[in-house]
Amino acid sequence: MPRLMLSDEQWSKLKTIMLQEGIYDKLNLRLEVEGMFYRMRVGCPWRDLPKQFGKWASLYKKFNDWSMTGKWLRIFKAVVQDPDLEWVFMDGSYVKAHQHSAGAAGKACEAIGISRAGRTSKIHLAVDSYGLPISFKITDGQVHDCLAAPSLIESFPPPEVLTADKGYDSKSIRQQISEKGTVPNSPRKKNSMIGNANLDRHLYKLRHLVENAFARLKHFRAIATRFDKLKRNYQSMLDMACSYLWLPM
Question: What is the average per-residue pLDDT within 4-11?
């Protein structure tokens, strides 16, 4: 039997949320979910999944259906319970797109662009005071942090302080943060005439929490390298990974 990821306690918590989302409680539901997590962890093609998880085509169809209807996204949002919003940290990270994900162009949104690293996607992530993911956005690899920040900021409740690096130093972003009653804590760019007198440097040092979250997420090979062609399927993989980080909480 392949190595599994979910303990009985974690499965009990996840199953309760899945049933609330209208997922039918089949006898092999846990095994199907473990198959999806296995693919997330090892990054193998769907057709190479071990036979113990069932027919790979059926498993992929179910994952694709849940992705299309946004079930994994809703599960992630349900798993995120009582995040510590005293401080929130934001950052972005590139993900290399495998050649199997960057094939012929289609009509569906892919969010794969060309940056210095080649064909890439970019994950824009926000974590709470404990370094747990609370929201993320996926864009083309060449999209600057400042362009993705407004929608990311709107996707989670206002914290007391929002910390990010100088890539988020924008007058409009600072204004958006301040209008929510949040204190922006980002260093100014080198050409700024205002300076960093108001920067909380001790809090800024804790920005490694979002870097640690990226490191934990990229332990899963289907997150560290993008194998999914469709944006929504890769997003569902990331929803699964973020949910897994929350399950022990």
Answer: 97
